[in-house]
Amino acid sequence: xxxxxxxxxxxxxxxxxxxxxxxxxxxxxxxxxxxxxxxxxxxxxxxxxxxxxxxxxxxxxxxxxxxxxxxxxxxxxxxxxxxxxxxxxxxxxxxxxxxxxxxxxxxxxxxxxxxxxxxxxxxxxxxxxxxxxxxxxxxxxxxxxxxxxxxxxxxxxxx
Length: 159
Prior knowledge:
The structure is a single chain. By secondary structure, this protein is an alpha+beta fold. The protein has 2 domains: 1-66, no CATH class; 70-158, no CATH class. The chain is built from 3 helices and 8 strands. The mean pLDDT is 86.
């Protein structure tokens, strides 16, 4: 499955209202006809991710005058993905990072496999390193989501 990066629509999918700079909003990825689709929701209209959501996150719409944020180099993100494989307590963070790497087209989602215990695993391929990754689907709860966002921002963003 390929995912073409789609920027924030700046419009709430539920209400049609334009999102304002600095406003919190939620984005969700869903699988529709074997294609990932992004929708953005204002915080007031957000009722949680829809059934079958591939991933979702909370963000803030940037201010027009803010300097752009720069990601850490792709190799740094891939190294972090490798490190997190050794820490089962942070499997949810590894899952979120894997989604980010798919979004940035560093890795490609080859397939999703469900085992006998009903545990989903993403099978990723990184053309840059010619490496396959297996990432457990571990959806973080609301509290943990904010912790993961804060930690990834601290580790991977540079102003």
